[in-house]
Amino acid sequence: MAEYREEHYDVNGIDTAVLTAGEGEPLVYFHGAGTVTGFDSMLPLAERFRLIVPLHPGFGASADDPSIDSIQDYVLHYLDLFDQLGLDELSLVSLSGGSYMAAWFSIYEAPRVRRLVLGAPLGLRIPEHPTVDLFSVPDAELLSYLTADMSVFEGKVPMPPTPEFLAERYRESTSWARVAWNRPYDIKLAKWLHRITMPTLILWGDADRLIPVGQASTWSELIPGAEVKILQGIGHLMFDESSEALDAVAEFVGEGAGVLTKES
Amino acid sequence: MSAPEDIKFYFFHHHHYSEIPPDEDKYESTMVDYPNALYDPVKGHELYKRHLRTVVLADELGFDGIAINEHHNMVYSMTPTVSVMAGAIVNATKQARIQVAGVPINLEYPNRVAEEYAMLDVMSGGRMEFAFPLGTGMEYWANAGTINPTTARARFRESLEVITKAWTQDGPNRHDGDFYTYRFLNPFLRPYQQPRPKCFIVGTGSKETVQLAVDYDMGYSIVFVPIANQLRAFNQMRELAAAKGREIDPDDLTVVVMAYVADTDEEAVREARPHIEKFFSWFHRVPPKYLVPPGYVTTDEFLRRVSDVAMAEGKKATWDDMVAIGRIACGSADTVADTIRQWCDEAGCARVNVVCELGDMPEWKTVKNMTKFATEVIPKLRAGGATVAAGDGREPAAAGVR
Prior knowledge:
Low-confidence stretches of chain B: 385-402
Distance between the termini of chain A: 7 Å
CATH topology of chain B: TIM Barrel
CATH class of chain B: Alpha Beta
Mean pLDDT of chain B: 91
Number of domains of chain B: 1
Number of helices of chain B: 14
CATH architecture of chain B: Alpha-Beta Barrel
Number of strands of chain B: 11
Oligomer: heterodimer
Structural class of chain A: alpha/beta
Largest interface: A-B, 22 and 20 residues
Mean pLDDT of chain A: 95
Strand content of chain B: 5-15%
Helix content of chain A: 25-40%
Helix content of chain B: 40-55%
Number of strands of chain A: 8
Radius of gyration of chain B: 20 Å
Strand order of the largest sheet of chain B: 1-2-3-4-7-8-9-11
Strand order of the largest sheet of chain A: 1-2-4-3-5-6-7-8
Radius of gyration of chain A: 17 Å
Largest sheet of chain A: 8 strands, mixed
Largest sheet of chain B: 8 strands, parallel, barrel
Shape of chain B: globular
Shape of chain A: globular
CATH superfamily of chain B: Luciferase-like domain
Structural class of chain B: alpha/beta
């Protein structure tokens, strides 16, 4: 199994950590609004691609920047970073809040994105299938909303949680609150999703308790030609739970060049 | 610190909703998400009448002032729009100054707060004072999401700037801020007291709020936090003010005291203790999550708090804990007077917010307590000498309850 190299870039004054593994065509992964489970589950993609996992400002090993307080700020941050990395063309894979960023990035910057995978995207307001507001969920129930398979937290969530662990969660929650406390959706997003013109895969677990799979059809209606793949029995943290999710990514981004070898 | 000659006593009244359901133990919180189906408007109506009666009595008994505050979504307070209650109190009272302490200004447009408060000051003929709170963490769960806790402190500072500008600079003015734009900041009503009523910042003693009080030339009114923290905050305020050439007057510093006066120390504890315990166990019941919404404090401050075992586990404070760390003066008139004198002495403050109705106290106890406080405690302190001189080494405070 490949390993990540961690490199740091000064992006417009923000110390930004970037994990990289593998060679080949660049595949950038935008993580969601928390980094508890880490990114080792994505590593099989490094067998086929140059896997690049930037940590968002205010998350994990990247520095805080209170002035990053909108999805658009994240998009502009990544334009800066990708310029530094020389990524003129890339495929973008994302999950949850990361998909919210990836969708807006692709709206603004369609020619730069070769293929797009939106995993359980946040960002639309769909009253028939409402997103659970993670800020309001009682602490004791929080993890159960994130996954259908609690074993994904083994060795990653100290029991009982240490003060340092809780403080890091508070920090990431603060970073996300800058963007999403006002509202965990963007009423403008639906209007502009038609600008996502590259081949797009919408990936969703049908056991997602946080962002219900019922939202998938709205996304596919709004993005021209988008494919939808539903993963049976899988919760929100699909890449931690299921190699099937990674296989779907590899197949879609690699344009049908077969599934990944199963190994870990 | 030397004891100020004249201590001012403000009758601080919470306006609790004091109906407690029989299945009280099943609720993890009496704030934010406590079901509002449990609010009975008919009982609420009776309670408003009782609260106003109580406040009017405080005026008649000669308290220097009446202080009221604002909270949302909680049994703790029936004054979520505190200025409405202030309007009623203005008309029902004659002498006392009235401190609205106050609207968490982030929850309103600052020009509205300036107008509302100026209106009260004019209506009352200049009896108003205002204390500005950032708002507890709970307010940010209970109010519109556009009031984002991650920007609470920056918004608070800008709101203070708008309000003081509206009051003290002739309009129309323009304001181009991070949060608010005013093309014509020109509220027609100006305060009765010129250039503006006396103001305080309400806080837990954080350096940020102390600095605000210094920067905006306001006093500081501290909430229920351990006494050691209060003293540290006041010292910091004196230092920060001195650096700007301002001397902090004892009249700029307010402490809050829970008091209960009876004929003997034993009787006072017996009568007050169950209600004080209920104050903490019911009226203050809140999960840690609601105290600190994301970004309300820094990550370092959050780490400090979760590292404190008692805070993190929501440990139930014992009676001894409460008396040891807080300002609970429970005893005979002599005991209470000595205790408060000593506290004012060591804090260098000349203002005391006295909470006389504690938790689910029945009206007769409130009336008895406040009457004894006004007629037996205040005269001892106003005269400038308590029965036992401060600094004679006698165990302070509530000696009878330890």
